[in-house]
Amino acid sequence: MNDTVGIQDVPADVRRELEEHANVVGEGIGLERTEAEGLTDRVAVVVLVEEKVEASELDEDDLLPETIEIDGEELPVDVQEVGVVTAQEAVEVAPSEADPLAVHDVVPLEMDEDADVQTAVEGFGRVKKMRPAPGGVSIGHPAVTAGTLGSSPLRTRHGKTVFLTNNHVAAASGDAKVGDPVLQPGRFDGGADPADRIGTLLEFSTITFGSNGRNVSDSALVEIAPDHVQTDLFELQEDIRGWEGAVVGQFYTKTGRTTGVTRGRCTARNVNIGVNFGSKGIANFVGLDMFERMSAGGDSGSVIGIERPEGFYGTSLLFAGSTQATFAIPMSTVQQVHGRLVPMTSHDLVEAEDLRIAGHIASGSLAASETKYQWFGPWDPKYEVDFTVHPTSNGGYIRGSVDSLYRNQAGTYYLVKMENRQNVAANYDVRYVVRR
Fold this sequence. Notes:
Elements: H1 12-19, E1 24-34, E2 38-49, E3 67-70, E4 73-81, E5 86-87, H2 117-123, E6 133-135, E7 138-139, E8 147-148, E9 154-155, E10 161-165, H3 167-170, E11 181-183, E12 197-204, E13 210-215, E14 220-223, E15 229-233, E16 240-243, E17 251-256, E18 260-276, E19 282-292, E20 303-308, E21 311-321, E22 325-330, H4 331-338, E23 342-343, H5 346-349, E24 356-366, E25 371-379, E26 384-391, E27 398-408, E28 411-420, E29 426-435
Parallel strand pairs: 2-4, 6-15, 13-19, 16-21
Antiparallel strand pairs: 1-2, 1-18, 3-4, 5-21, 7-8, 9-10, 9-23, 10-14, 11-12, 12-14, 17-18, 18-19, 19-22, 20-21, 21-22, 24-29, 25-28, 26-29, 27-28
């Protein structure tokens, strides 16, 4: 919706009248969509239904008006089918390169002939453990399947370092408690506590279930150590630089655990709708942004935004969707709930005199005299990453080295070679140092 449009919301009395009609599940202000033209640039009162039915099948009292007057302006009423809207944690769905929403498939370049190619391909997925982890990869509370690590590191009003995701991803739809672990990858993708703990739950929005609920946000902050999350967003060129409001009709981008990088237009704002949270029931939300379908189960927690040469500007926090549309919470609302959230740069994450991040990335074992290769990444090409392999069993002697590099839109991947130089089995840890 461009800045010249004066009408930004549907008055409460109009909403109540619309919701009295059979099949109506939500409404907002957006752009009219027609069968012949698709999404137009004409402003309309968008009325959402689970399934469109012929007017002849409705009682006369349930027929919607063709236009509605708001603030002296006559707007068309556009009925749009939205299907069943659900909270989008992973539900019996694994990421697939065949997903029609995915726009990037990972294809390895030529590799060392001794490398395990299948392992290399699998290592590029968003469902693997990454330290530091970029935004757009699998996370979740131990009681949840999996969702998405939404943001690069953010600084809260109290000086905490956090990342953003959904309540239903990191706080189990309100059943968790502050201090609970959050895993990367999520449990559905093999994550376990404490080995895969990436942070702890700091705070989360309230979700009220049932017909009397009037929810504004499904959001959570996860407190992290500086070396656990990187400033990059998986497969996007720019880091988060700030926040702004979505504009109806404009294209936006997200990077998520299940469908990767997808783009779609914002089709309506100030949308009220009920969202199905499975066994928890229906929660009614108000003031949402609606987008063309750009998500699936497991993408919850992604930050939707716009890419510019100077950076990525987030507009909305994705949390729900259907086979027809994606729904998200405006970042202005998220910050009303949690306070101001300031995107951090790499220099914010460590002391100025020591611009390095170090950590543990993997553990394993080698048989006597065995050599193994493993891929790690992605890291932004602006970083320089060193790897060391440390034996953890007595008498172990393991030599580690970077054998080769692979680069794609997500960043740089390192193939680390681990050689057991002794005639006995040995366990090891792989550690890294990222130089900014």
